[in-house]
Fold:
Amino acid sequence: MKPVRLRMVQTNPTLGDVKNNLEQMLDFINDSSDVICFPEMCLTGYSSEESSKYSMDVESEPIRKLVDAARENDAAIVFGFPERSSRGVHITQAVAAPGGRLELYRKTHLGRFEKKYFVPGEELVCAETEKVSIGLQLCWESHIPDISTTLRYMGAELILNPHASFKDPETRVEMWKKYLPARAYDNRVFFAACDMISGEKGGGMIVFDSEGNTIKEYASSDEHAIDCELDPGLLKRSSPEDTDTMAGSDFFLRRRPELYRL
Structure:
Protein backbone atom coordinates (compact mmCIF):
# COMPACT_ATOMS: atom_id res chain seq x y z
CA MET A 1 0.00 0.00 0.00
CA LYS A 2 1.18 3.50 -0.80
CA PRO A 3 1.58 6.13 1.96
CA VAL A 4 -1.25 8.59 2.48
CA ARG A 5 0.04 12.06 1.62
CA LEU A 6 -1.35 14.55 4.14
CA ARG A 7 -1.16 18.34 3.90
CA MET A 8 -2.17 20.48 6.90
CA VAL A 9 -2.71 24.19 6.26
CA GLN A 10 -3.04 27.25 8.48
CA THR A 11 -4.59 30.33 6.88
CA ASN A 12 -5.31 33.92 7.92
CA PRO A 13 -8.77 34.59 6.47
CA THR A 14 -10.34 38.04 6.35
CA LEU A 15 -13.74 37.96 8.04
CA GLY A 16 -16.43 38.01 5.38
CA ASP A 17 -14.08 38.22 2.39
CA VAL A 18 -15.00 34.82 1.02
CA LYS A 19 -13.65 35.49 -2.47
CA ASN A 20 -10.15 36.32 -1.24
CA ASN A 21 -10.19 33.59 1.41
CA LEU A 22 -11.10 31.03 -1.25
CA GLU A 23 -8.29 32.18 -3.52
CA GLN A 24 -5.81 31.80 -0.66
CA MET A 25 -7.08 28.28 -0.04
CA LEU A 26 -6.88 27.29 -3.70
CA ASP A 27 -3.21 28.34 -3.70
CA PHE A 28 -2.52 25.57 -1.16
CA ILE A 29 -4.36 22.84 -3.10
CA ASN A 30 -2.33 20.58 -5.37
CA ASP A 31 -2.41 17.12 -6.89
CA SER A 32 0.53 15.85 -4.83
CA SER A 33 -1.59 15.43 -1.67
CA ASP A 34 -4.27 12.84 -0.89
CA VAL A 35 -5.80 14.84 1.97
CA ILE A 36 -5.62 18.62 2.44
CA CYS A 37 -6.98 20.03 5.70
CA PHE A 38 -7.81 23.69 6.43
CA PRO A 39 -8.84 25.28 9.77
CA GLU A 40 -12.30 25.60 11.29
CA MET A 41 -14.44 28.31 9.56
CA CYS A 42 -11.58 29.06 7.15
CA LEU A 43 -13.80 30.00 4.22
CA THR A 44 -15.43 32.98 5.93
CA GLY A 45 -13.20 33.67 8.90
CA TYR A 46 -14.35 32.91 12.45
CA SER A 47 -17.02 34.98 14.18
CA SER A 48 -19.79 33.96 16.54
CA GLU A 49 -21.69 37.24 16.52
CA GLU A 50 -21.70 37.57 12.71
CA SER A 51 -22.20 33.92 11.91
CA SER A 52 -25.64 34.40 10.38
CA LYS A 53 -24.44 37.28 8.18
CA TYR A 54 -21.75 35.17 6.53
CA SER A 55 -23.47 31.78 6.57
CA MET A 56 -24.01 29.84 3.34
CA ASP A 57 -25.60 26.61 2.19
CA VAL A 58 -23.85 23.69 0.53
CA GLU A 59 -24.89 24.80 -2.94
CA SER A 60 -23.02 28.10 -2.61
CA GLU A 61 -20.53 28.83 -5.36
CA PRO A 62 -17.40 28.87 -3.12
CA ILE A 63 -18.23 25.38 -1.85
CA ARG A 64 -18.88 24.07 -5.35
CA LYS A 65 -15.47 25.43 -6.40
CA LEU A 66 -13.80 23.47 -3.61
CA VAL A 67 -15.69 20.35 -4.65
CA ASP A 68 -14.43 20.89 -8.20
CA ALA A 69 -10.88 21.41 -6.91
CA ALA A 70 -11.06 18.10 -5.03
CA ARG A 71 -12.15 16.33 -8.20
CA GLU A 72 -9.53 18.02 -10.40
CA ASN A 73 -6.65 17.32 -7.99
CA ASP A 74 -7.80 13.84 -6.91
CA ALA A 75 -7.58 14.95 -3.28
CA ALA A 76 -9.91 15.08 -0.29
CA ILE A 77 -10.24 18.73 0.75
CA VAL A 78 -11.34 19.40 4.33
CA PHE A 79 -12.57 22.93 5.06
CA GLY A 80 -14.85 24.86 7.41
CA PHE A 81 -17.67 27.36 7.04
CA PRO A 82 -20.84 28.56 8.84
CA GLU A 83 -23.61 26.50 7.30
CA ARG A 84 -27.14 27.86 6.99
CA SER A 85 -29.90 25.31 7.53
CA SER A 86 -33.56 25.18 8.52
CA ARG A 87 -32.47 24.75 12.15
CA GLY A 88 -30.14 27.76 12.23
CA VAL A 89 -26.40 28.15 11.66
CA HIS A 90 -23.95 25.29 12.18
CA ILE A 91 -20.17 25.32 12.55
CA THR A 92 -19.55 22.88 9.72
CA GLN A 93 -16.43 21.12 8.50
CA ALA A 94 -16.80 19.61 5.04
CA VAL A 95 -14.92 16.84 3.28
CA ALA A 96 -14.95 17.28 -0.49
CA ALA A 97 -13.96 13.83 -1.74
CA PRO A 98 -12.09 13.29 -5.02
CA GLY A 99 -15.14 11.76 -6.69
CA GLY A 100 -17.27 14.86 -6.10
CA ARG A 101 -19.02 13.67 -2.93
CA LEU A 102 -19.46 16.22 -0.12
CA GLU A 103 -19.74 15.05 3.50
CA LEU A 104 -20.52 17.42 6.36
CA TYR A 105 -19.67 17.36 10.05
CA ARG A 106 -21.68 19.85 12.09
CA LYS A 107 -19.91 20.63 15.36
CA THR A 108 -21.67 18.66 18.06
CA HIS A 109 -20.09 20.19 21.18
CA LEU A 110 -20.30 23.99 21.05
CA GLY A 111 -18.15 26.31 23.14
CA ARG A 112 -19.89 28.42 25.77
CA PHE A 113 -19.77 31.55 23.60
CA GLU A 114 -20.86 29.63 20.50
CA LYS A 115 -24.10 28.32 22.02
CA LYS A 116 -25.80 31.68 21.66
CA TYR A 117 -25.21 31.90 17.90
CA PHE A 118 -24.96 28.35 16.56
CA VAL A 119 -26.99 25.15 16.74
CA PRO A 120 -25.17 21.89 17.47
CA GLY A 121 -24.99 18.95 15.10
CA GLU A 122 -26.46 15.65 16.20
CA GLU A 123 -24.05 13.05 14.83
CA LEU A 124 -20.38 12.29 14.44
CA VAL A 125 -18.98 11.74 10.98
CA CYS A 126 -16.38 9.41 9.50
CA ALA A 127 -15.81 10.17 5.82
CA GLU A 128 -14.59 7.32 3.65
CA THR A 129 -12.14 8.10 0.86
CA GLU A 130 -10.26 5.74 -1.43
CA LYS A 131 -7.02 6.30 0.50
CA VAL A 132 -8.08 6.69 4.15
CA SER A 133 -11.09 6.92 6.46
CA ILE A 134 -11.29 10.42 7.98
CA GLY A 135 -12.87 11.24 11.33
CA LEU A 136 -13.65 14.87 12.15
CA GLN A 137 -13.79 16.86 15.37
CA LEU A 138 -13.40 20.59 15.92
CA CYS A 139 -11.34 22.76 18.25
CA TRP A 140 -12.06 22.10 21.93
CA GLU A 141 -13.77 18.80 21.09
CA SER A 142 -10.22 17.43 21.28
CA HIS A 143 -10.65 17.50 25.09
CA ILE A 144 -13.46 14.93 24.95
CA PRO A 145 -11.85 11.47 24.55
CA ASP A 146 -15.19 9.80 23.81
CA ILE A 147 -15.36 11.59 20.45
CA SER A 148 -12.07 10.17 19.20
CA THR A 149 -12.95 6.70 20.50
CA THR A 150 -16.32 6.81 18.77
CA LEU A 151 -14.72 7.93 15.52
CA ARG A 152 -12.32 4.98 15.72
CA TYR A 153 -15.32 2.70 16.35
CA MET A 154 -16.86 4.15 13.16
CA GLY A 155 -13.74 3.18 11.22
CA ALA A 156 -11.58 6.31 11.30
CA GLU A 157 -7.90 5.81 10.52
CA LEU A 158 -7.03 9.51 10.48
CA ILE A 159 -8.72 11.99 12.83
CA LEU A 160 -8.51 15.64 11.78
CA ASN A 161 -9.01 18.32 14.41
CA PRO A 162 -9.14 21.83 12.85
CA HIS A 163 -9.17 24.75 15.30
CA ALA A 164 -10.01 28.44 15.52
CA SER A 165 -8.57 29.16 18.98
CA PHE A 166 -6.16 32.03 18.27
CA LYS A 167 -3.62 31.23 20.96
CA ASP A 168 0.09 31.90 20.70
CA PRO A 169 1.22 29.20 18.23
CA GLU A 170 4.05 27.88 20.42
CA THR A 171 1.68 27.68 23.39
CA ARG A 172 -0.93 26.00 21.20
CA VAL A 173 1.46 23.29 19.97
CA GLU A 174 2.82 22.62 23.46
CA MET A 175 -0.73 22.24 24.79
CA TRP A 176 -1.55 19.74 22.05
CA LYS A 177 1.46 17.66 23.05
CA LYS A 178 -0.06 17.13 26.50
CA TYR A 179 -3.13 15.21 25.38
CA LEU A 180 -3.38 14.59 21.63
CA PRO A 181 -0.75 11.80 21.64
CA ALA A 182 -3.15 9.81 23.84
CA ARG A 183 -5.98 10.27 21.32
CA ALA A 184 -3.73 8.77 18.65
CA TYR A 185 -2.05 6.07 20.77
CA ASP A 186 -5.08 4.67 22.59
CA ASN A 187 -7.21 4.51 19.45
CA ARG A 188 -4.34 3.52 17.12
CA VAL A 189 -5.18 6.29 14.64
CA PHE A 190 -3.23 9.07 12.99
CA PHE A 191 -4.22 12.41 14.51
CA ALA A 192 -3.61 15.89 13.07
CA ALA A 193 -4.55 19.41 14.15
CA CYS A 194 -4.25 22.89 12.67
CA ASP A 195 -5.26 26.32 13.97
CA MET A 196 -6.57 29.40 12.18
CA ILE A 197 -4.57 32.64 12.22
CA SER A 198 -6.10 36.01 13.07
CA GLY A 199 -3.66 38.89 12.74
CA GLU A 200 -0.62 37.96 14.84
CA LYS A 201 -2.50 35.40 16.91
CA GLY A 202 -3.27 31.78 16.22
CA GLY A 203 -1.56 29.26 14.05
CA GLY A 204 0.16 26.00 14.85
CA MET A 205 -0.02 22.54 13.31
CA ILE A 206 0.92 19.06 14.43
CA VAL A 207 0.63 15.48 13.14
CA PHE A 208 0.92 12.31 15.26
CA ASP A 209 1.26 8.75 14.05
CA SER A 210 -0.88 5.93 15.42
CA GLU A 211 1.67 5.28 18.18
CA GLY A 212 1.47 8.86 19.46
CA ASN A 213 4.79 9.95 17.99
CA THR A 214 5.08 13.42 16.46
CA ILE A 215 5.58 13.18 12.70
CA LYS A 216 5.74 16.92 12.06
CA GLU A 217 4.92 20.17 13.83
CA TYR A 218 4.91 23.88 13.06
CA ALA A 219 4.53 26.78 15.49
CA SER A 220 4.32 30.19 13.84
CA SER A 221 1.68 32.74 12.83
CA ASP A 222 2.14 32.84 9.07
CA GLU A 223 0.13 31.22 6.32
CA HIS A 224 1.85 27.90 5.83
CA ALA A 225 1.42 24.22 4.99
CA ILE A 226 3.18 21.13 6.27
CA ASP A 227 3.33 17.92 4.26
CA CYS A 228 3.93 14.41 5.53
CA GLU A 229 3.32 10.80 4.57
CA LEU A 230 1.28 8.45 6.75
CA ASP A 231 2.64 4.91 6.84
CA PRO A 232 -0.26 2.55 6.06
CA GLY A 233 1.59 -0.22 7.89
CA LEU A 234 0.83 1.52 11.18
CA LEU A 235 -2.89 1.19 10.47
CA LYS A 236 -2.75 -2.61 10.66
CA ARG A 237 -5.28 -3.79 13.23
CA SER A 238 -4.12 -6.43 15.68
CA SER A 239 -6.44 -9.23 16.76
CA PRO A 240 -8.20 -9.01 20.15
CA GLU A 241 -6.95 -12.55 20.80
CA ASP A 242 -3.30 -11.56 20.22
CA THR A 243 -2.30 -11.32 23.88
CA ASP A 244 1.27 -12.59 23.74
CA THR A 245 2.67 -9.08 24.07
CA MET A 246 1.39 -5.57 24.71
CA ALA A 247 3.86 -4.09 22.26
CA GLY A 248 1.97 -2.80 19.28
CA SER A 249 -1.36 -3.82 20.78
CA ASP A 250 -4.54 -2.30 19.45
CA PHE A 251 -5.95 -1.30 22.83
CA PHE A 252 -9.22 -0.26 21.25
CA LEU A 253 -9.98 -3.88 20.35
CA ARG A 254 -9.47 -4.97 23.97
CA ARG A 255 -12.12 -2.67 25.38
CA ARG A 256 -15.13 -4.05 27.28
CA PRO A 257 -17.78 -1.37 26.68
CA GLU A 258 -20.36 -3.25 28.74
CA LEU A 259 -18.38 -2.26 31.86
CA TYR A 260 -18.18 1.45 31.19
CA ARG A 261 -20.77 3.82 32.62
CA LEU A 262 -20.92 6.91 30.44
Observations:
- The longest strand covers residues 76-85.
- The radius of gyration is 18 Å.
- Residues 4-234+244-259 form a domain with the Nitrilase/N-carbamoyl-D-aminoacid amidohydrolase fold (CATH 3.60.110.10).
